[in-house]
């Protein structure tokens, strides 16, 4: 997998972990109310930025990454609410496909189909997702060995459907309603499926990985910020470090 220019995207600054500190020859460009931090990690040019929250914000930022910064792949890293029964706080969910749970033009189109694209679910890029899978597995194992934080010691990696919508899911019964509609959904968040649609339409490979910050229930807003800095940020740092090692390793192998 050869990646010369990688876009790394989060909703919130903490979700980027220490990535911006790792960039060599870093410069920052402001565009359409976003700050794009450009620099090098090894042979890879990195453009790191935060989209802010929600699908429109994520779509706008993704479009700028592709059209203006000309990245050739995008990785979204952040947090999400766990939906599947086996998904616990502190686990990590890697998307195999993404869907917008709040998009439906039925009866004009099948429910949850993206009108005129003819798709409900958008698959992630398998090679990039494979590299992120290896990086996340390593990050989790490192943390299990080192960290005393309870969320790290039991972290598991899951892979499957992530659903996105413009709502923070915390009200009683909402997560159950979503699970009834999408029984195989592992996690819910507010940006991934928008990134997926923009990348798909541009033919840009992408991957989405999320640390589970809550169970999309009444407890979800509690300690959210604490989780971001104590768990999500170091988990992002570990995953991204492993990913850059994987990219460097595979481009050495290819040359
Ligand atoms: N308290 C935060 C708001 C976070 S919104 C603040 O003031 O900045 C939640 C963010 O985390 C979104 O980017 C979303 O993608 C993700 N997320 C985590 N848990 C979620 C949940 N239960 N429902 C929807 N999105 C969730």
Q: How many E-type strands?
A: 10
CATH-scheme architecture: 3-Layer(aba) Sandwich
| Straight-line N-to-C gap | 11 Å
Number of domains: 1
Number of helix segments? 7
Radius of gyration: 17 Å
Shape from CA axes?
Answer: globular
How helical, in percent, are the residues?
25-40%
Summarize the helices and strands and which ones pair or pack.
Blueprint: E1 5-10, H1 19-22, E2 24-31, E3 34-41, E4 44-50, H2 55-67, E5 73-82, E6 92-100, E7 121-123, H3 126-146, H4 150-153, E8 157-164, H5 174-181, E9 185-189, H6 192-202, E10 206-214, H7 224-254
Parallel strand pairs: 1-4, 1-5, 5-10, 6-8, 8-9
Antiparallel strand pairs: 2-3, 3-4, 5-9, 6-7, 6-10
Helix pairs in contact: 2-6, 3-7
This protein binds S-adenosyl-L-homocysteine.
The site of S-adenosyl-L-homocysteine (SAH) has 19 residues, from strand 5, strand 9 and strand 10.
Structure explained in plain terms:
The chain has a single domain, classed as Nucleoside phosphorylase domain (Rossmann fold, 3-Layer(aba) Sandwich). Helix 3 packs across helix 7. It has seven helices and ten strands. The protein has a five-stranded mixed β-barrel, surrounded by four helices. The longest helix has 31 residues. Strand 2 and strand 3 form a beta hairpin. With 255 residues, the protein is α/β, with parallel strands linked by helices. Helix content is 36%, strand content 29%. Bound molecules: S-adenosyl-L-homocysteine (SAH).
